[in-house]
Amino acid sequence: MPEPTKRCPYCQARITTDSKRCDVCDKKVGPPDEFNIAKKPFNWSGYFSAAVTGGAFFYFMYWLFVLKDK
Ligand SMILES: [Zn+2]
Hints:
Elements: E1 5-7, E2 14-16, H1 44-67
Antiparallel strand pairs: 1-2
Bound molecules: zinc ion.
């Protein structure tokens, strides 16, 4: 019986289903989806920096149009 494999979403290499990291490109991969392609793990640090950047921009606009002229 062959070892169960999934595909890396980054480089399309075949890796074992339960591996957490691609053997070929060394990127983190999640469990396989319905097409047997590994899911990309959620990037919390990217999400957090995007939220901080968006929040800072929103506050800047608020400061520019609301607080500055008082
Ligand atoms: Zn890969």
